[in-house]
Design a protein that fits this description.
With 271 residues, the protein is α/β, with parallel strands linked by helices. The protein is built from 9 helices and 12 strands. β11, α7 and β12 form a beta-alpha-beta unit. Bound molecules: NADP nicotinamide-adenine-dinucleotide phosphate.
Length: 271
């Protein structure tokens, strides 16, 4: 694809952001659909200046990552209902200077779960209470699942439980509760700390669905333990691809073949 005077600019803002696989994934999608656009990584320090820059330069769309997903909300002109309820934005669409925020993590996680298992009426333990846990908790609550939050910080965990009207347990307690699905939303087990698991082996029961939203490595210690215990495992790649595909649809109005995005991300991960 030629970069010329008509090339539209998209990007991810975060800090740090150099490890992000989003540029590879979205540039592959633009190439596949022959869209004259480029997607870059912006490691930013000052969010206010960044937003002024986005408006001034007419950058058409953004992915938003750690630590700006909540902080960006007051700078936007409009925020989609689901993102507002979650309290986190991971996608911005710039429509002629009007910046609207969305959260596609929630839909990405839901799609990743639903393609592997029937979630209706299920009981789910979510490990973590950060931005990703909020997104997943809200969408699963909306779908009628019973939610239990397990988190290291009791205050943050209880805060999410109050918003979701659900039960809180300490991080060492998942083995004591019955759950059909367990989802890790903490970075525990992520490269380079690949020998760690957020829960003990006895929390993993045969037949359970265990999802880890970490995608590097693709099989975390948690997932390896879960597989050995006879659980159905789901890694973080489908959620990442589906949240990215939804971003692409919001920016361009075009459905992107997820296979293309998935291939390029797997290649980047040497999978
Ligand atoms: P966040 O808002 O910073 O929340 C992190 C959560 O993990 C908090 O609940 C924190 O507990 C907990 N935590 C962190 N370190 C821990 C440790 N050593 N032991 C126990 N708990 C720990 O981050 P986030 O935005 O939710 O993202 C979390 C992870 O999800 C990241 O690894 C991110 O890459 C991944 N993610 C993946 C996707 C995907 O598409 N696959 C999408 C979004 C995020 P405290 O409250 O006690 O601090």
């Amino acid at each position: 694809m030629m970069i010329d005077q008509d090339t539209e600019v998209y990007g991810v803002i975060g800090n740090p952001v150099r490890h992000s696989l989003s540029p590879a994934m979205h540039n592959a999608a633009f190439g596949e659909k022959a869209i004259n656009a480029i997607y870059l990584a912006f490691e930013i320090k000052d969010l206010k200046d960044c937003i002024r820059g986005i408006r001034a330069l007419g950058i058409r769309g953004l992915s938003v990552t750690i630590p700006f997903k909540s902080d960006i909300i007051p700078f936007l002109d409009e925020v989609d209902d689901l993102a507002m309820r979650i309290g986190a934005v991971n996608t911005v669409v710039n429509n002629s200077g009007h910046l609207k925020g969305y959260n596609t993590d929630a839909l990405g996680a839901l799609r990743a779960l639903e393609e592997k298992t029937d979630i209706s009426g299920k009981r789910v333990v979510i490990i973590g209470a950060g931005g990703a846990a909020r997104a997943i908790g809200y969408i699963l609550k909306e779908r009628g699942l019973e939610i239990i939050i397990a988190n290291r910080s009791i205050e943050r965990g209880m805060d999410l439980c109050r918003s979701l009207d659900c039960e809180f347990i300490r991080l060492d307690k998942p083995a004591d509760v019955h759950a059909d699905i367990l989802i890790n939303t903490t970075p525990v087990g992520m490269s380079p700390q690949i020998d760690m698991s957020p829960v003990q082996e006895n929390a993993l029961k045969e037949g359970m669905v265990v999802m880890d939203i970490i995608y590097n490595p693709l099989k975390t210690r948690l997932l390896a333990m879960a597989e050995a215990r006879g659980c159905l495992i789901i890694n973080g790649l489908p959620m990442f691809i589906y949240q990215g595909a939804e971003q692409f649809r919001l920016w361009t109005g075009i459905e992107v073949p997820v296979a293309v995005m998935s291939e390029v991300v797997k290649r980047e991960l040497n999978f």
